[in-house]
Design goal:
By secondary structure, the protein is an alpha/beta fold. It folds into three domains: 5-92, Rossmann fold, CATH 3.40.50.720; 97-244, Dihydrodipicolinate Reductase, domain 2, CATH 3.30.360.10; 254-357, no CATH class. The protein contains eleven helices and 16 strands. It has helices at residues 11-21, 29-33, 49-58, 73-86, 100-110, 130-136, 143-146, 154-164, 273-276, 279-294, 323-331; strands at residues 5-7, 24-26, 39-42, 62-65, 90-92, 117-125, 168-176, 195-202, 207-213, 219-226, 230-233, 242-245, 296-298, 301-310, 336-341, 356-357. A seven-stranded mixed β-sheet has the order 7-8-9-6-10-11-12, covered by helices on one side. α3 (49-58) runs parallel beside α4 and α5 runs parallel beside α8 (154-164). The two termini are 49 Å apart.
Length: 368
C-alpha cells in the first residue's frame, strides 16, 4: 500500500507531515476525495465516521474505518446502503481480532475442538488515572467525555464474532453509574456512565455477555464455551496464552500437550530462542517432563500436566485446583504455574491422612 494524500483540519501539523512523507495535503475533504487514489482510511473522531465513509464510497473509493462504524441506527442503515450501491469494499478496522490469542481461539474453534458455540464472554475493562484520561480527551466536549458507556463495545464483542463467525440478533444493555466516591472522576471532564454490561443472543442461538470500559481491575479477556469444550485467554500471567478445557468423561484420553500456540508462532515442539534459553523456562520444562514421566498422585487420582511456565508473582496458582495441589504449589519455592487436566479415572475414597503421595521412590528434582 502506498500513501498518496492526507486530509486534516490541523493545518500546521498537516503541512509538516506532508513534507516529511512527500504526499499531497488537503484541508477540504471533498477536494481530498478528488485525488487519484483507490481507498480511504478514516481516522477521525469516534462518532463522525459514517458520513465520511458514505461520501468516500459515493466517490468510488474503498473504505477502511476506525471504530465506531456509525453513531446511530439511521447512520448504520445509510452506510450499508452506500456500500451496496457503490460495489466497493468497506472494512471496519476493529483491531482486537488480530490479537494472537483471538487468532488461536479462532483456529481451535474452526477445527471443531470445542464443538458448537453456546456461550461467550468478552471483557474490555480499562480504568485510567485522571492525568491519562484528560490527555486522551482534551476539552469538555471531546467525545470520550460524553459517549454513552454502551457504545464502546467493539473490543469486547469483535473477538467473539471473529472466533465463532456469529452475529448478534438481540441486544439488551445496562449502564453502570459512576460511584460517588470515585477519586478519579472528580478530576476529569467525564460526564458519562462508568461502564456497561451488554447481553446478546447470537444468530446461532448462543448467549454472550460483554463488559466494558471504566471499572477497576484492568483486563482484556475472552471466554468461549462450546458443546464439547471451553477455551479462554489467561486472566493471570501471560494473557496471550490460551487455556483449553475438555472434560474427559466423554472424550478419548490423549497424550499431554505442551500448549496451544498462537497462529504465526513456532510449530509444536519449538520455541523462540529467547524463551527457550530462559533458565526458569528450562527448569519449568524439566519439571513438566519429570511429572509426565513419574506421575503425580494425590489421593489416588492422577493429574496429567499439559503446560508449565514460570510465574512472575509468588504463589500464583489456579484457585479451582483441589486444596492439596494449591497448598503444595504455594509452599514450593520455585513457584511454577501449571495447567493440569483431569483424566477419566474413577474416584476413590480420600485417605484420612490427606497427604500427597508420589508413585516413584522419590519426587523429581524439579517440581511443578
Amino acid at each position: 500500500m502506498k500513501l498518496v494524500a492526507l486530509c486534516d483540519t490541523w493545518e500546521e501539523r498537516l503541512n509538516t507531515l506532508g513534507k516529511q512523507l512527500n504526499v499531497a495535503t488537503y484541508t477540504d475533504y471533498d477536494r481530498f476525495l478528488e485525488h487519484d487514489m483507490d481507498a480511504v482510511i478514516l481516522a477521525n473522531y469516534f462518532h463522525q465516521h459514517a458520513p465520511f465513509a458514505i461520501k468516500a464510497l459515493a466517490a468510488g473509493k474503498h473504505v477502511m474505518s476506525e471504530t465506531t462504524a456509525c453513531f446511530t441506527l439511521a447512520e448504520g442503515a445509510a452506510l450499508v446502503e452506500a456500500v451496496e450501491r457503490s460495489g466497493r469494499i468497506y472494512m471496519f478496522a476493529e483491531n482486537y481480532p488480530y490479537m494472537l490469542f483471538n487468532q488461536e481461539m479462532r483456529r481451535i474453534y474452526r477445527a471443531g475442538t470445542i464443538g458448537r458455540f453456546m456461550y461467550g464472554e468478552g471483557e474490555y475493562v480499562h480504568p485510567m488515572d485522571a492525568d491519562s484520561t484528560n490527555a486522551i480527551s482534551p476539552g469538555v466536549n471531546h467525545w470520550r467525555n460524553w459517549i454513552p458507556a454502551t457504545y464502546y463495545c467493539t473490543h469486547s464483542l469483535a473477538p467473539i464474532m471473529f472466533i465463532t463467525d456469529t452475529r448478534p440478533l438481540k441486544v439488551n444493555g445496562f449502564v453502570i453509574p459512576v460511584a460517588e466516591d470515585d477519586p478519579v472522576r472528580a478530576r476529569t471532564a467525564r460526564r458519562n456512565d462508568a461502564a456497561s454490561m451488554i447481553a446478546l443472543r447470537m444468530d446461532n442461538g448462543a448467549v454472550v455477555k460483554l463488559l466494558q470500559v471504566g471499572l477497576r481491575g484492568e483486563g482484556i479477556w475472552v471466554r468461549i464455551h462450546g458443546s464439547r469444550g471451553q477455551m479462554e485467554n489467561l486472566r493471570h500471567g501471560d494473557s496471550r496464552m490460551v487455556r483449553l478445557r475438555r472434560e474427559q468423561f466423554h472424550e478419548k484420553r490423549g497424550d499431554p500437550q505442551a500448549a496451544h500456540r498462537p497462529a504465526g508462532g513456532p510449530p509444536p515442539g519449538r520455541r523462540p530462542t529467547a524463551l527457550a534459553e530462559h533458565p526458569r523456562r528450562r527448569q519449568a520444562d524439566r519439571a513438566a517432563v519429570a511429572l509426565r514421566a513419574q506421575g503425580v498422585e494425590t489421593d489416588r487420582i492422577p493429574w496429567r500436566v499439559i503446560a508449565a511456565r514460570p510465574t512472575d508473582m509468588p504463589g500464583e496458582v489456579n484457585t479451582s485446583w483441589p486444596p492439596l495441589i494449591r497448598g503444595w504449589l504455594l509452599q514450593w519455592p520455585p513457584r511454577w504455574s501449571c495447567v493440569c487436566r483431569w483424566p477419566p479415572a474413577p474416584r476413590t475414597p480420600i485417605p484420612a491422612s490427606g497427604r500427597m503421595r508420589w508413585p516413584a521412590a522419590s519426587p523429581p528434582s524439579a517440581r511443578c
